[in-house]
Amino acid sequence: MRPQALVAALLLVVPLVAGCSSNSAPVPLVTYSSPYAPPPTPTSMGPSPTPLPPPELLLSATDVYQAGAILASVTGDLGSGTVTFLGRKYQLTKGAQSLYAFLSVGTEDPPGPAAIKVDFALKNGSKGTLTADATVLKTQWTVDALDFTEEQTSTLLDPKLVAAENKLLADTYALYTPEKLWSGPWQLPVQGAVTARMGEQRAVNGGQPSGHHGGTDIGVPEGTPVIATNRGKVVMVKQLAVRGNMIIVDHGGGLLSGYAHLSQFSVTEGQEVDAGDVLGLSGNTGLSTGAHLHWEISSYGILVDALRFTDGTNGF
Ligand SMILES: [Zn+2]
């Protein structure tokens, strides 16, 4: 690897947490019944209103890897609700049949038991709570061993520029649109070999592995069409110092996807896109030493492993 590549790799090691995608319609593996008592049995003949089913919490999985995500859905006559998981709070977003949230596990969230708590309000005003137990599993991160001099890291990029770029991305990934924009399975944005997994660590000059690669690198020739992983709205089309030409798509409910190092843009900010629509062409812009796509998914500002949205390991 040339020095520039090493530096690029290091600069892209951002301890971000969040994101996820799926291959198929969410199929709950586990159902947790609400603690509510069943409605009373009618005691007279005559017409009585059909009782509404009690709220239920459905989870795509209860075992989730670091940098994975759980799709939590709550059915029932809910008006609103929040989910608390790993010390973070998520708004429930209205989906087709239920309210939902993608619960993200960060690269640095500790393995072990993790409770899921839903606080909800029914449309009739009554409030309640649903709980479930999940387990965070340890991800075995890949490690890239690099050798380079301190001079090589300090001369290529202005730290202020890098800080400004990181802030812009953090602000964009913090967007929450209270509307489900995605629909159906999540797609790979390009077809190619994965050259660096999300969460990959770097061991510099024989040191301890540290940091986590914030996205998935897929090697493809320059000019390869890059498609939207799912339906959404384009919220950022920008030339950046490190990530080069980058597009971010908002899928609603706090979930966004990012596509970096592009050679060409095919969409503009504010444009709505369907899954599979071409966003731009892959390239080698920014701090990159070979044509590839750097693909990110973020949920509530936490970068998560985008590949887990397409390989079924998140249970959706
Ligand atoms: Zn990358």
The fraction of residues in strands falls at 35-45%
Low-pLDDT windows of residues: 1-38
Name the CATH superfamily assignment.
Answer: Glucose Permease (Domain IIA)
C-alpha Rg, in Å?
Answer: 21 Å
Number of helices: 3
Structural class: mainly beta
Per CATH, the architecture is Distorted Sandwich
**SSE pattern, N- to C-terminal:** HEEEEEEEEEEEEHHEEEEEEEEEEEE
- This entry's quaternary arrangement is single chain
Mean pLDDT: 87
The small molecules bound here are: zinc ion
Secondary structure: helix percent: under 10%
CATH topology descriptor: Glucose Permease (Domain IIA)
* Domain unit count: 1
Alpha-carbon distance between the termini? 36 Å
The tally of beta strands, per DSSP, is: 24
**Name of the level-1 CATH class:** Mainly Beta
Tell me, briefly, the overall form.
globular
Largest sheet: 9 strands, mixed
